[in-house]
Design goal:
single chain, alpha+beta, 13 strands, about 30% helix, globular, binds magnesium ion
Length: about 350
């Protein structure tokens, strides 16, 4: 066992360590540690219940001066509901625990809960409890969300097969482009693309309806959400499915306007993080049907690559260049110096 500090071990290794030592095998647990949410089937229950939790810390995950309490509340629940969406579950309930430093007003707290419940009401998730404590440093937010399956159809990270086509919902890199603006001190920009990027960063929309539809369709083999960046999350899907992957850079649904403020849109799409879009794979034979049947009113889906036999190898094909390894440059909660506001 390593005596290294957690910072040097890395998030993936730490999860693996806990999983290997403490994971329970029990027939009530359909999926324990190691996916976007845990999946359980209580005795006599017709459906599965899904449980996920996420923590947001001031000055690690957000800065109080950069985000309104309303948007912070919305985002805090959104990152949790995104993990339920990643498995195709319907959001049902959530609890919120807050540790607050001195000086936080009642107004701030109620604005925060307004943001939380605004999203909860939109997605059908009810606030059912929580806890308060005092903090001697910044604000700490911990949410647990519960979801329910529909017809016991849930999607795991582990169902992918070599030859499956890879897709993502929406656009990638927009949230990271918004974060770059905030870091530059641009809080209330006039330009529309800049406003949109900041909005996506502060008020991400969990893809609950798309996730549910994809799980019900029977056309998808595996799914997860993108929280730490494609270059970090895709290898997690590959590890769970025991496959490799290749990405076509030219197909990535980037946010091109970010180049106006000095960003590289492809780079942000690969490594930016906090997209909270869905990454999923479909067998080649079902991909055509999937693209046809996928509802037009949902966020667009884009074919960005495929799963390969090359276990553990994730590569990228850039126009006019040879295939190269895609290096993990997204966010690891322990390893890297934190770009504030990044990660789940
Ligand atoms: Mg996730």
């Amino acid at each position: 066992m390593s005596r290294k500090p957690a910072q040097l071990i890395g998030e993936n290794r730490l999860i693996q360590l806990i999983q290997d030592r403490y994971q329970d095998r029990n027939p009530l647990i359909k999926k324990g540690i190691g996916d976007d949410a845990a999946v359980i089937r209580p005795r006599h229950a017709r459906e599965y219940w899904l449980i996920t939790t996420d923590m947001l810390l001031e000055n690690i995950d957000f800065r109080r001066e950069w985000i309104t309490p309303n948007r912070l509340g919305y985002k805090s629940l959104s990152v949790n509901l995104s993990d339920l969406a990643a498995m195709g579950a319907r959001p049902r309930f959530f609890t919120v625990s807050l540790a607050l430093p001195p000086g936080i007003s009642e107004r701030w707290i109620l604005d925060f809960y307004d943001g939380l419940t605004e999203l909860g009401n939109l997605k059908g998730a009810l606030l059912i409890g929580g806890d308060f404590s005092r903090s001697e440093s910044g604000i700490s937010i911990s949410i647990m969300a519960l979801g329910e399956s529909l017809n016991r159809k849930v999607l795991y990270r582990s169902g992918g097969k070599a030859g499956n086509l890879l897709y993502v919902t929406g656009f990638l890199g927009q949230s990271a482009a918004g974060l770059k603006l905030l870091e530059k001190g641009s809080r209330n920009p006039q330009s529309r693309p800049q406003q949109a990027a900041i909005r996506v960063h502060q008020k991400p929309e969990p893809r609950c309806e798309a996730g549910l539809w994809l799980a019900q369709s029977g056309l998808v083999s595996c799914m997860m959400d993108l929280s730490d960046g494609l270059s970090v999350d895709l290898p997690r899907m590959c590890a769970a499915s025991d496959v490799g992957a290749e990405i076509y850079a030219a197909n990535l649904p980037v946010f091109p306007e970010s180049s106006f403020w000095g960003c590289d849109p492809v780079n942000l799409a690969l490594h930016g993080g906090e997209d909270f879009e869905l990454l999923f794979a479909a067998p080649n034979s079902k991909a055509g049907m999937l693209e046809k049947a996928y509802p037009k009113q949902f966020p667009q889906i884009t074919h960005i690559g495929e799963l390969t036999r090359d276990v553990g190898v994730v590569s990228i094909i850039r126009p006019g260049r040879k295939r190269s390894r895609l290096l993990e440059q997204g966010y690891d909660h322990f390893r890297r110096k934190k770009p504030v506001g990044n990660g789940d």
